[in-house]
Design goal:
Layout (H helix, E strand, L loop, with lengths): L5 H15 L23 H5 L3 H8 L3 H14 L5 E2 L12 H10 L3 E3 L3 E2 L10 H9 L10 E2 L5 H16 L14 E2 L2
Parallel strand pairs: 1-2, 3-4
Antiparallel strand pairs: 2-5
């Protein structure tokens, strides 16, 4: 492996430092359901200020989502407004439309990923396979969202090489925020 720059190591360290805050609060299989503070910029309050009573009523339908939001707010001071469906939105099947409508009414957007390391599969890939799963499948897309689970030691080991490889493909790393074209609002 080529020598990594301090900048790439710093980015990887930042991501994992945030993930370390989740240790003990969530079980490892739940970590991937939390949108890390790194990916969220817009304040939840400002999105929902006109519909607070409806949001409070709707929150009873999605208790885990609001528990995660509250934890992230407590630990970082940031309120989230982006969700991801466990397994991707296609897993919601017949419920997808109604769930999307409900979360949209609550001021949330959702994101699906384009690529994944494969670290969430029952048979985990090797570090090299994780790197290849990302770098060999970007297909020159302008924007990609990559799913990586922060509980995976494989991803922890692969992340610096993934960052370096994406930079060599002329990608830049940006936070995922509510106004991003990759966040769907309805």
């Amino acid at each position: 492996m080529a020598t990594r720059s301090a900048k790439i190591d710093q980015k990887a360290d930042l991501i994992w430092a945030i993930a370390d805050k989740l240790t003990g609060v969530y079980k490892p299989h739940e970590y991937g359901d939390v949108i890390l503070p790194l990916t969220v910029l817009k304040r939840f309050d400002s999105v929902l200020s006109d519909t607070k009573s409806k949001v409070l009523e709707a929150s009873k339908k999605f208790p885990e989502t609001f528990a995660q939001r509250d934890f992230i707010l407590k630990e970082t001071g940031i309120k989230t407004n982006i969700l991801r469906f466990p397994g991707g939105s296609n897993q919601a099947k017949g419920l997808k439309t109604s769930i999307i409508k409900e979360i949209s009414n609550m001021g949330y957007g959702y994101v699906d990923w384009d690529l994944e390391t494969g670290d969430g599969k029952k048979i985990a890939p090797t570090i090299k396979e994780s790197i290849d799963n990302v770098l060999n499948k970007t297909n020159d897309r302008d924007i990609v969202v990559i799913l990586m689970h922060d509980y995976s030691s494989i991803t922890l080991s692969a992340l610096p090489s993934i960052i370096e490889g994406l930079e060599k493909q002329n990608y830049i790393m940006l936070p995922l925020f509510y106004e991003s074209v990759k966040v769907k609002k309805s």
